[in-house]
Amino acid sequence: MTETETIAYDVVVLGAGPVGENVADRTRAAGLTTAVVESELVGGECSYWACMPSKALLRPVIAQADARRLPGLRQAVQGPLDADAILAHRNHFTSDWKDDGQVGWLDGIGADLYRGHGRLTGPRTVNVGDRVLTARHAVAVCTGTRAVLPDLPGLAEVGPWTSREATSAQSVPGRLVVVGGGVVAAEMATAWQALGSRVTLLVRGKGLLNRMEPFAGELVAEALTAAGADVRTGTSVESVTRRDGTVVVVTDTGDRIEADEILFATGRAPRTDDIGLDTVGLEPGSWLPVDDSLRVTGSEWLYAVGDVNHRALLTHQGKYQARIAGAAIAARASGKTDLDAGPWGAHAATADHAAVPQVVFTDPEAAAVGLSLAEAEQAGHRVRAVDVDLSSVAGAGLYGEGYKGRARMVVDLDDEILRGVTFVGPGVGELIHSATVAVVGQVPLARLWHAVPSYPTISEVWLRLLEAFRDS
Q1: pLDDT of residue 10
Q2: How many CA atoms lie within 13 A of 327 on its CB side?
Q3: pLDDT at 78
Q4: How many other C-beta atoms are found inside a 10 Å radius of the C-beta of residue 116?
Q5: How high is the pLDDT of residue 337?
Q6: Best CA proximity match to 423, nearest among 355, 356, 354, 358
Q7: Whole-angstrom distance, CA of residue 106 vs CA of residue 110
Q8: pTM for the full model?
Q9: Rounded Cα gap, residues 86 and 109, in angstroms
Q10: Among 5, 153, 202, 264, which is 20 to 30 Å from 30 by CA?
């Protein structure tokens, strides 16, 4: 029988993705001893099956689309993309699914890594194999999410793709059905269509990207259709089978679609089903509600950071939360009771409520921060939407012929600040941080007039938006 070893730390972190790494970085910087537990690869979903590989697949697609809009360059990029080279570069971008570098980084900050499945066995106690880790101050759950598959008979035998297979596949399927209308569905449809698949995109709702302004999904769907994808909205999957290697999909409209692979991008669930939540009075498999310091409601020692708290399922927002949580854990460990937990305080994840930015790396890109017009109205704000055609901005012409894009700012008419901003068009991903600063900083429109955009850049859209507000 193996003897159990008990090791005491100030902080134990469950999950070594970007969120767990950042919690550990902040607690170690504060001088707290920290253990990090990981059952897969250090670096997590983002590094190996999400952000990094997906953007490695998409960057050549977007670069080619940009080049094809430019006279003089268009002729040089008329051939198909080299899919094998792109997939090889994607493999390099993920370090060939090896985590040596990230393990070295954890070692460099002085955190101890434990490989294996970590499970709470009571307050401040985590079991990993034959080791028991105890936490003097905090346990931080940073285990992220997993893809959810629909309840369709026989689906397991089909071998469907989730986001993991979509970002790590080593060959291009001739025909791909993508089910879903969110970010993963839109990005992966964009990538695989450009790499040579014939993509059919099945969207249950009215359109793509329904958490953004409606025009964002409309422009992305229009571009996907122009690229050759078959985009079908208001369509659900009734059954899926695989016969002699071919996937057969039957929709609720009676259509029969054949494909080589099928990707379901239909939602996420928290990875909390087998981490011992029941031993501390919480429901296994549940999202974990937290206060603005990321401490689990009703607990003095348990934190839930990143996707598991369901505030914003985005890597950058999870890393932001990790910095807040690390600071709060360190402050409480030092005996501080009066945390800076007010709006925009050092120990409050205020941006989760009003200023979450996101970029969708399709062609065209879609980027948004804060509230959409509908969300602002539902929240009770008296607002006005101000829209500008991005192609009217001089800098858009530098992106080539046929530029299509749109910008919207949602103006609070009582406070004359921005509640939200949305951009759609080539190159707009680099615009969103200026919008984030304006929304987070609650910059008055009268002050924004004096933030002069450089000419000729697409940032000049800020001037056009302000003029449209003034003249409306």
Answers
A1: 98
A2: 17
A3: 86
A4: 13
A5: 86
A6: 358
A7: 7
A8: 0.95
A9: 33
A10: 5
- Residues in CB range of 226: below 8 A, 6 or more apart: none
Cα–Cα distance, 411 to 156 (Å, whole number): 48
pLDDT of residue 79: 87
Please report the domains of the chain, with CATH numbers, ordered by start residue: 5-43+99-146+269-351 (3.50.50.60), 155-266 (3.50.50.60), 364-471 (3.30.390.30)
Distance in angstroms (rounded) separating the CA atoms of residues 171 and 324: 41
Place of tokens 């996101």: 358
Confidence band (pLDDT; 50, 70, 90) for 368?
very high
| Integer Cα distance of 334 and 278 in angstroms | 29
Strands lying side by side in the sheet with 198-203: 230-233, 198-203, 175-179, 261-264
Question: Using CA of residue 89, residue 93, residue 99, residue 104, what is the dihedral sign?
Answer: positive
d(C-alpha 432, C-alpha 357), whole Å? 7
Cα(52)–Cα(312) distance, rounded to whole angstroms? Answer: 18
**Residue 225 and residue 351: Cα distance in Å, rounded?**
35
SS3 of residue 237 by DSSP: strand
How does DSSP classify residue 440? H
What is the structure's pLDDT at 1? 43
| Amino acid, single-letter form, for residue 181 | G
Q: How far apart, in whole angstroms, are the C-alpha atoms of residue 298 and residue 239?
A: 43
> % helix / strand / coil in the chain, to the nearest 5?
40, 25, 35
User: Are 358 and 352 a contacting pair, CB within 8 Å?
Assistant: no
pLDDT tens for each residue of 18-52: 999 999 999 999 999 999 999 999 999 999 999 99
Look at the alpha carbons of 300, 306, 312, 318 in this order and tell me if their dihedral is positive or negative: positive
Q: Is residue 354 over pLDDT 90?
A: no
CB neighbour list of residue 28: distance below 8 Å, 6 or more residues apart: 34, 109, 110, 111
Omega before 364 cis (within 30°)?
yes
